[in-house]
Amino acid sequence: GAYRSDTRFSSGDVFRIQVLDGKVTYSRNGSVFYTSKKSADSPLQADTAFYNLYGAITNIIMMTE
């Protein structure tokens, strides 16, 4: 529930949020731009905010292992 990081993006960019070695990593087009300092707790949640009237998220896949 707290702001952690931001990154620039363009239409067509692919974002990935995953847990690696207990830490949550955030990447854009395969490049990690933030890694959590705390271990991940379950259940995981994702949230976003749009600052553009025409913003959209497409092709979402949520998986658990």
Percent helix: under 10%
**Which class of secondary structure composition applies to the elements?**
mainly beta
Strand content: 25-35%
**Quick one: overall form?**
globular
Low-confidence region ranges: none
Number of strands: 3
The whole-angstrom Rg is 13 Å
The biggest beta sheet is recorded as: 3 strands, antiparallel
Q: Residue-averaged pLDDT, rounded?
A: 83
Give the topology string: H per helix, E per strand. EEE
Adjacency order of strands in the biggest sheet: 1-2-3
How large is the count of helical segments? 0
- First and last CA, distance: 23 Å
Describe it.
The protein is mainly beta and 65 residues long. Helices cover 0% and strands 32% of the residues. The protein is built from no helices and three strands. A three-stranded antiparallel β-sheet has the order 1-2-3, with no helix packed on it. The protein is globular. The chain starts with 14 loop residues before the first strand and ends in a 26-residue tail after the last strand. The mean pLDDT is 83.
Describe the SSE topology.
Elements: E1 15-20, E2 23-28, E3 31-39
List its salient traits:
single chain, mainly beta, 65 residues, three-stranded antiparallel beta sheet, globular
Describe, in short, the structure shown:
The protein has 65 residues and is mostly beta strands. Helices cover 0% and strands 32% of the residues. It has a three-stranded antiparallel beta sheet with strand order 1-2-3, with no helix packed on it.
